[in-house]
Amino acid sequence: MIGCSGVACPVGADEFEPEWLIKNERYEMIHQMMERHEEAHQGNWQEFMRQSAQDWRQYPQLARNELSSITCPALFIAGEHDDFATEEQLLELCLWVQDSRYLIAPGCSHRPHMLREKPILINDSILSFLNKHAIR
Questions:
Q1: DSSP 3-state helix, strand, coil percentages of the chain (rounded to 5)?
Q2: Coil, helix or strand at residue 7
Q3: Closest CA relative to residue 78, chosen from 58, 104, 42, 56
Q4: I need a labelling partner for 103 at 20 to 30 A (CA). Which of 63, 77, 125, 131 fits?
Q5: 85 contacts 112 by C-beta, under 8 angstroms
Q6: The pTM is what?
């Protein structure tokens, strides 16, 4: 099954709550969340974690038969050095989701859309994809 940005989740959504991380002294994970999401959430790792856990509860992992029932065009994006979504995983998603494509952003990590990476490439790629698949 797929979850956590398209890949198998290392911990459950309940374990991703900020309070759980603090209570269980997962300080390295807290530090990583603060560092990795500073741009997106101005360093507010707790709010990021709450939103992520809520998303994972609301949109649970999809099985292959559920992925194959997706009929709208899809674009999956990851960075070349993304530890959470590899090219192999995106290729597998594309095998299951009809009319889907993937983009591996060269030289990027898990956040290719952020300022320190390649936001212009990502935005241009998304706009091009949307132009090719416009609702008529």
A1: 50, 10, 40
A2: strand
A3: 104
A4: 63
A5: no
A6: 0.65
Residue (of 108, 70, 110, 76) closest to 90 by Cα position: 76
Question: Are the CB atoms for 78 and 85 separated by under 8 Å?
Answer: yes
Angle, CA 82 vertex, CA 25 and CA 22 arms, to 5°: 10
CB 110 within 8 A of CB 79: yes
Q: What is the pLDDT along the chain (136 residues), one digit of tens a residue?
A: 334 444 344 455 555 667 777 777 777 777 777 776 666 666 677 777 777 777 777 766 788 888 899 989 999 999 999 888 899 999 999 999 999 999 999 999 888 888 888 999 999 999 999 999 987 7
Buried b (16+ CB within 10 A) or exposed e, 51-63: ebbeebeeeeebe
Burial level of 33, CB count in 10 A (0-12/13-18/19+)? Answer: buried
Place of tokens 């997962």: 26
For the chain, the residue count is: 136
- In the numeric block, the tokens 């999809």 are attached to 62
Kind and range of the H or E element at 47? helix 45-58
